[in-house]
Amino acid sequence: MTVTRLRLAPVTHSPVLPVYARQDLTFVRGEGTTLYDARGRAYLDFLAGIAVVGLGHCHPAPLAAAHAQLDRLWHTSNLYWTEPMVELAQRLSLRAGGARAFFCNSGAEAVEAGLKYARKATGKPGVVALSGSFHGRTTGALSVTGQPGKREAFEPMLPHVLFAEPNDLPSLEAAISAETGCILLEPIQGEGGVHVLDAAFVAAARRLADETGAVLLFDEVQTGVGRTGAFFAHEHVGVRPDALMLAKGLANGLPIGCLLVFDDAPEGLVAGDHASTFGGNPVACAAASAVCDELTDEFLATVTTNGLVLAEGLAALPGIREVRGAGLMLGAELDRQPADVVDACAQRGLLVGTAGADVLRLTPPLIVTTAEIEQAVVVLEEVLA
User: Fold this and answer.
1) Interhelix angle for 282-294 vs 83-96, to 10°?
2) Residue pLDDT, tens place only, 125-134
């Protein structure tokens, strides 16, 4: 049998749609907190795929779990059960104190599932989200994202969405009405500039949801899975939502998203209401279970400790007006444009990101060491001086 190989024409322009403002870097290998480019140069990764590779690149636990599952089974569809999906759901339920999971492929998909759950559970179309929030790029998730610049090109968006100001209780109370079926919060706003919600504000949102019959949803796509030093960020404020969304760090880089509905929450989705062809993929779920097993209390305590070390190091640098966040999800508000700082750091072998107009985002792998933190602070000091 003769196999005809496809001959690709010379590329005169990028064959990829230009929806990202990429840096001119191509990475070919990763190990722990280090990425290597096509020329073999090493970079200290303090972005971790935007808070995704929590255990570091090619961590042996999820790597072995994914490899083993690849040898057994890749896909069956959700017409059937698979062991990795059930095992991951059990782990997440135990962490949450009793919950049921819907698995999908990304944070935006998880938010879409959460919005549908809230609509079905309450029968009310209204959503109250927060200014500065970010919940994803799909139409529904974008509609509840409190950043007009991201929505304007695609308006009109979904109706019945109002935005309150973060940590402003009168603003939140004014936004809630008889049609409000969902109050949607990020415990720490990530893309919007790493702004932490006050415990009192979150508690008030819980009270208002109970009083009005709304569902309280927490978007923990970025804050969840150990990023803030607790498995769920809402543990820091002691407020339990009706449901939450996870994604980024859950499978250490393999695509996965999850809507987690607490056992005592209102009933919502039933068979036929929602679906995801690749949701609960056995390989991704096997990797995610391995991630969950690594996040022991001792490990999470180290995340908290190292987060404080990094925050203190950042606060002492020139040009940084404020450091915000929790654990290893930190934002450093600058007195200059962060894009220039990001480029200068990359030239010196340090990868960092941005969040908002003037904030440097630092979300290193949760396995980062104090020595690596010191190394990153030295580079930042050189760039900011």
Assistant:
1) 40
2) 999 999 999 9
The confidence band for 3, taking pLDDT boundaries of 50, 70 and 90, is low
Instruction: Read off the pTM.
Output: 0.95
Sheet containing 359-362: give its strands across. 320-326, 329-334, 359-362, 353-354
Dihedral, CA atoms, 311, 314, 315, 317, nearest 10 degrees?
A: 170
* The token pair that represents 131 in the structure block: 């200014």
**Residues forming a β-bridge with 195:** 189
Q: What is the pLDDT of residues 287-342, one digit of tens each?
A: 999 999 999 999 999 999 999 999 999 999 999 999 999 999 999 999 999 999 99
What mean pLDDT is predicted for residues 44-51? 98
- CA dist 363 and 231 (Å) reads 15
Residue 370 makes CB contacts below 8 A (sequence gap 6+) with 306, 309
Structure tokens at 149: 């610049």
Domain-located, residue 54: no
Q: What is the distance between the alpha carbons of residues 111 and 53, in angstroms, rounded to a whole number?
A: 20
Omega cis (within 30) before 318: no
Amino acid found at 381: E
Burial 287-309 (b: 16+ CB within 10 A, else e): bbbbbbebbeeeebebbbebbee
Say which amino acid occupies 298: E
Q: How many CB atoms lie within 10 A of CB 273?
A: 13
Answer yes or no: is 19 within a domain: no
The helix/strand/coil state of 370 is: helix
Closest of 311, 309, 303 to residue 226, by C-alpha: 303
Hey, what are 130's tokens?
A: 């927060």
Rounded Cα distance between 117 and 181, Å, is 10
Q: Are 324 and 314 in contact, with CB atoms under 8 Å apart?
A: no
Q: What are phi and psi of 329, to 5 degrees?
A: -120, 95
Q: What gap in Å lies between CA 187 and CA 196, rounded to an integer?
A: 6
Integer Cα distance of 226 and 291 in angstroms = 10
Residue whose C-alpha is closest to residue 290's, from 32, 55, 35, 95: 55
Residues 152 and 113 in one domain: yes
Which structural domain range is residue 138 located in?
Answer: 60-294
Instruction: Out of 276, 294, 312, pick the residue that ends a domain.
Output: 294
**Quick check: is 22 in a domain?**
no
Average pLDDT of the chain is: 96
